[in-house]
Amino acid sequence: MDINSLFLGAKSENDEIFSKELVKLFYDHAQWRKNFHPEDPDIISKSELSSNEYIKTTNKMETVLNELSSKLRAKMMPWHSPRYIGHMNSETLMPATLGYFAGMLYNGNNIAYEGAPATTVLEVEVGQDLCKLMGYEPEIGWGHLTPDGSTANYEAVWYMRNIKSIPLAIKEVVPELVKEKTQWELLNMSVDEIMDLLDKVPDKLDDIKKYSSRNDNTKVTMLGKLIVPETKHYSWLKAADILGIGLDNLITIEIDDKFRMNIDKLKEVIDNLVDKKIPILGVVSVVGTTEEGAVDYVDKVINLKDEYSQNGINFYYHIDAAYGGYGRAIFLDEDYKFIPYENLHDVYNKYNVFKNKDIDWPSKEVYNAYESMSKADSITVDPHKMGYIPYKAGGIVIKDKRMKNTISYFANYAFQKDTKIPDLLGAFILEGSKAGAAAAAVWTAHRIMDLNVSGYGQLIGASVEGAYNLYNKLQNRKEYIVNESIVEVHPLCKPDFNMVDYVFNIKGNTDLVKMNKLNFDFYKKSSYFTTSYINDLIVSHTEFDYSDYKDSPLEIIRRIGISKDQWDNVHKLVLIRSCTVTPYLNDPEVFKYYSEEFDKAIVSKFSEILKEN
Amino acid sequence: MDINSLFLGAKSENDEIFSKELVKLFYDHAQWRKNFHPEDPDIISKSELSSNEYIKTTNKMETVLNELSSKLRAKMMPWHSPRYIGHMNSETLMPATLGYFAGMLYNGNNIAYEGAPATTVLEVEVGQDLCKLMGYEPEIGWGHLTPDGSTANYEAVWYMRNIKSIPLAIKEVVPELVKEKTQWELLNMSVDEIMDLLDKVPDKLDDIKKYSSRNDNTKVTMLGKLIVPETKHYSWLKAADILGIGLDNLITIEIDDKFRMNIDKLKEVIDNLVDKKIPILGVVSVVGTTEEGAVDYVDKVINLKDEYSQNGINFYYHIDAAYGGYGRAIFLDEDYKFIPYENLHDVYNKYNVFKNKDIDWPSKEVYNAYESMSKADSITVDPHKMGYIPYKAGGIVIKDKRMKNTISYFANYAFQKDTKIPDLLGAFILEGSKAGAAAAAVWTAHRIMDLNVSGYGQLIGASVEGAYNLYNKLQNRKEYIVNESIVEVHPLCKPDFNMVDYVFNIKGNTDLVKMNKLNFDFYKKSSYFTTSYINDLIVSHTEFDYSDYKDSPLEIIRRIGISKDQWDNVHKLVLIRSCTVTPYLNDPEVFKYYSEEFDKAIVSKFSEILKEN
Description:
2 copies of one chain form a homodimer.
Chain A (H helix, E strand, L loop, with lengths): L14 H21 L10 H4 L2 H24 L8 E2 L8 H13 L12 H16 L7 E5 L2 H25 L9 H4 L4 H10 L4 H6 L6 H4 L4 E5 L5 H8 L7 E4 L9 H13 L4 E7 L11 H13 L5 E5 L23 H7 L13 H9 L5 E3 L13 E5 L37 H13 L7 H22 L1 E4 L2 E7 L7 E8 L5 H14 L12 E8 H4 L4 H7 L3 H7 L1 E8 L8 H25 L1
Parallel strand pairs in A: 1-12, 3-4, 3-5, 5-6, 6-7
Antiparallel strand pairs in A: 2-8, 7-8, 9-10, 10-11, 11-13, 12-13
Helix pairs in contact in A: 1-4, 4-16, 5-16, 6-11, 13-15, 18-22
């Protein structure tokens, strides 16, 4: 497997093969059109093709397409270049882009088999792939593509909300099934128990749903609290709002100095809620936080979940691995077994996952977290992030496909409930119409690269190694001489995944406001504020605000030499944020070249900034 | 304008120009990559490009792409052919497909300007286009693309739910603003009044939102009922569920014999609710019902809304024009003014909108409905339906952009709240990451064809005329002789838009179950149940079920000669459903050819069906 052959390339090195495949896929389609009832005559005649009106319209089309191309080239971000180390973007997989294009020509709508007999099957296969990736049994679990990670998270809340209300509904419809249970016990049943109960009364399912929170909004107000870490993506706020949980019922848990949800604090919050007899609707962990790339202690939450379960307290557990989900491929052998920790580096050597055989990754914490993901009730995982698929292709997997029945709907025109059809997506998902092309893109990538160490693991390895190259460089570099000043650089912490956050400061400066401005100025020089196409280095930035982060930034604040007083007054820290999704910065030679370019760019940008201030 | 030049063509007549533009857009991009820092060396070396591993991986890629292409050709629906008259699908606009492809190469994420500086601007322009299409002031209204019509509908419910709860929140946060108002009055304020109130206390906005249904889920339970017609898309059920309104608070209104919401019944329901002091959260009309293409009496709802408003009763009014929305283009002159009814046919003659100058469309009812759309609070309109754009591109427009603030969120990494950035989408939408490519596709189409009679109107006209050709044909044809039997055909009703529903029956049969089976058998012979690629005629079907339609199907049931008793026993009617999105069936010669082919196919299919039974 040579992953470089799967990208167009930072310098379009693979333009010939891309172009060849592109044209082939197009003519496959064009000839397919012609050969559908070859006896049907042309509709657009040769004389029409040469008419004035035709030529005028065609010219207009060409003019607008040229204008579009020009606008794109003038302003879009150069994801393809290793000079772009900002958001979780890089160039995407060539076969995925080509697969999307091919799918788009046929323009299937995966909402129903009828609208896309080929691509709905591909989406079902992709769902099974993602189950395998997460350690779910593909025959028991289920998954599908979503528009994006946010809507996948909404769907997760939809699941937990409707499922957790089912016992209350059963109490009303089939009371004998739960007769000995108190309200508190009903609100504390596990997903497994609830699914098993429903299995006992298949004929009552529709009636029971009518008394669940699907129909009865007062039930929503009884379900208790949704618990997320401080580092949650902002879509969790939207999820609580949109699904009618309400932000007042969202509890955020403090993080530790590695930006992972603090398990002691989580336990404290749960204990406190249990004491007050307030139910816990669900707990969310993040695998790959958006701002830091941190990986939450999934294994510890699973342990806690099991402990509480012993005492009759059960909550729904969802993992938001929109960003980090594909990272699990690097821990799976070719049989999709989780590789023992002690064998990891032998396996990595065998498969040439890392160029640097001594790479200090993964930590045992990160390994344990990934291992335990298979025990969550559902997981968000976005192919359009670390799956290197073009937008938009989010995804969600659920551990037990019986859960689907708690959110299902049927439309007469789209689904034939009483007829056996091969695959049916629309009845069990949040979104409506969906591009079959997205499924074609993901399927193509998955068929070329298995979702384990032999395939995607290589890509994840390249990206993580790029982050470690950058982190080690900044760690060792420590400072830049800029005119008469010294600009220090402070990495935030060792990456759990492929993101490096760091802070610049003028040596000796102890003023937090000044430091924040320095970093924001650097960001402005390294982003869309300055024309991107001629920029030497493009990054993103983030801000740790007290309202979200409480005192978690204090560790780095102190390390930089800024006082707690300053923090208490300002309560905001601006950081530079570099996600090394690019698959090229693992190569020592390539990294060396770009590293020197980065240094030059940093000195040059600060030289301007210092002059301007 | 020659609309035929904008499609690849049913027989790929335009393959040369498609291929030329495709390759040009690709090389524009490939060269852009190379010319971003031309001094940066190639990363993939020539020797790597000829290595064994590289060739092996490339071969695998080619094999999988061939497999994909083969699967697509074997099973996908031939939307491109006029033989496909089923769902609301046909081939899409060539420039839109090319625009999507170009956009995908740059793979921007329109969630934030930073991720897509070119394509977010295009999406904002598209939003303004859609405002103009709906008669909203582009400077006052606002719009954006959504994944699909369903999520646009969810967003509409999100708006109405959060906005209608704002007065309750104001009562708690700034009571002096609403001090004289009762709870009933607070729950009956209009969107305009609420926005004006918020304008008075801009500094309190965030506080007020904290007491709205965004934070407080008990407020959701106070908002009353959401009213939809029986013909609503099933996403309205999902919307009520997902947004925490609950299906128990969804009221469906009966329809009349034209499958439009019955205004008297609506009034009755509202009066009844008002009597009981139950608030009305919102009312939804459909412009282009999914099963019948019916256009609800928007103008009459607007009149009703104004009347009730006089009496202090205000509800949010949303129009689900996911399907019919682009139809409004045919009523707008080049200055985007709504064309007077008496001038319509002169204008249509001037612009050659219809081949048949005597076409009996639009009815005054349909005209009035489209005219009044500009008075709704928000409208769902999907470019990927009658905009002829590939999936996925839904859309929503709101009349007053101040509404955005009631649903807004900000993410530190994605948005800079305190910095002026040109355009910002992610903070004000339901979805998360979104493909810039979709905006590029829609923008390209809109720039080539204005959203009025000179552009898209022509396309809508071709499609509507195709439907009238089909409707008139079935109406006049009346029956088919199949072996010894006579198969009658009964169109449901004159199309409001471009969809024709019809029912087949064996002459003399008065058994509804038998008739339903006959139609379903026909559908099975004309859909994915039979291999699509060699099928002579492909349609879709629908079912009118008593639970959704009450006794509305009685009119056609009786017309066919089936008794009310039969209906009362069976309570289900199976219909064949043909949406003539194809832009070719307006041409008399083309229609004549395919009409004869349809007749042959109908006779041949029924001949098989009758033998099998």
